[in-house]
Amino acid sequence: MSWSSRAGTDGDQQAVLAFFTEPDFYFRTPHPELQSEADVSDLLDGARVLLWDGKPVGLYATRPAGGPDSPYGHYTLHLRLVHDVPDERWAEAYREVVRALRWRTEVVRVTAWVGDFDERGLRILRGLGLTEEGTYHDRVFRDGGRHGLRQFAQLWPVSA
Amino acid sequence: MKIRGYRATDCALLAGHWLPGELLAAWLVHPPVLAEPLTIPLPAGGGARLYVVAGVACVRFAGLDWVARRARLQIGLAAGTQQHAQPVLELAIGVGFRVLDLHRLEGLLTPQISGLSDAVAAAGFVREATVPRALWHDGAVLDREIWGLVNHG
Questions:
Q1: Disulfide check for A73: which of A25, A102, A108, A132 has CB 3.0–4.6 Å away?
Q2: Residue B88: pLDDT band by 50, 70, 90 thresholds?
Q3: Distance of residue B90 Cα from the nearest chain A Cα, in angstroms
Q4: How far is CA B26 from the centre of its chain?
Q5: Model's pTM, two decimal places?
Q6: A7 vs chain B: nearest CA distance in angstroms?
Q7: Can you give the three-state secondary structure of chain B, one letter per residue?
């Protein structure tokens, strides 16, 4: 049993669309079920399919924060797994994604965002010990109301 | 019954014998055998959104104005699903107000043909105006009505 990942291929399309039928599959959207097929392909920009034991179980994307003017070693992370993946395994996926990122390049900071309605996302990032840095108040409109977006980060000391 | 994002596999829901631009449209009865069905366009750009209730209806928000927060609502029911008109309309209103954060929904009804005015009124829409001689249909000129629904929160 092990993790693997690949860029979304045609063969993964049905699996990926099925992810977005889960009402709490908050991968870059507060309303997963209402994304059209075209919306989903926009959301996948730069994302990879995460597989557990060969089976697609989620999506992730890491990219330099702030584009070409990115501060040194700063990355953003979007990571979401389907609901039948237990929390511990999700946490493990986070650690593996970060480990792979740090394998090739120096990482000083990984930033992730979670809506304050997303109990599972909050629980997992807190459980992983990420620093909760603050809330973008009323940043997200979901289910008839405005919600905050929490910012989490993990930092490593920069090499000399 | 659930409303969700459009998939390519839902494409059969986008064609039907409806009146053009109708707020809530059931299939027209006995269309001429060679009459081409109306086709709901896929959204291009930010001016429209398209959702479906699987096997039952397509729901389109057109003319989206993100400043005034309003849209024209167009619902096309699949053939033989008229009994679902009310719940589909409620789902569409839910998306308009609770997902897109719109303040106003509006649309056209053709009362001589539609038979769905009661469903639209029951969902809270108000008849705001009559447009005389607005539409040619089946050899006659018909009046249409503008119905609107405002979200008072």
A1: A108
A2: very high
A3: 14
A4: 9
A5: 0.88
A6: 21
A7: CCEEECCHHHHHHHEECCCCCECEECCCCCCCCCCCCEECCCCCCCCCEEEEECCCEEEEEEEEECCCCEEEEEEEECCCCHHHHHHHHHHHHHHHHHHCCCCEEEEEECHHHHCCHHHHHHCCCEEEEEEEEEEEECCEEEEEEEEEEECCC
For B14-38, write each residue's pLDDT tens digit. Answer: 999 999 999 999 999 899 988 899 9
Q: Choose among B2, B51, B98: nearest Cβ to A143.
A: B98
- The pLDDT of residue B153: 74
How far is the C-alpha of A100 from the C-alpha of B86, rounded, in Å? 51
Question: Residue B44: beta bridge partners?
Answer: none
pLDDT tens by residue, B45-67: 778 999 999 999 999 999 999 99
Which residue type, as a one-letter code, is found at position B145? E
Best mutation target among A22, A27, A34, A139 (most B Cβ atoms within 10 Å) is A34
pLDDT for A160: 76
CB–CB of A33 and B4 under 8 A?
yes
Read off the amino acid at residue A104. R
Answer for the pair A111, A151: CB distance below 8 angstroms, yes or no.
yes
Q: How far does the CA of residue B23 sit from the closest CA of chain A (Å)?
A: 20
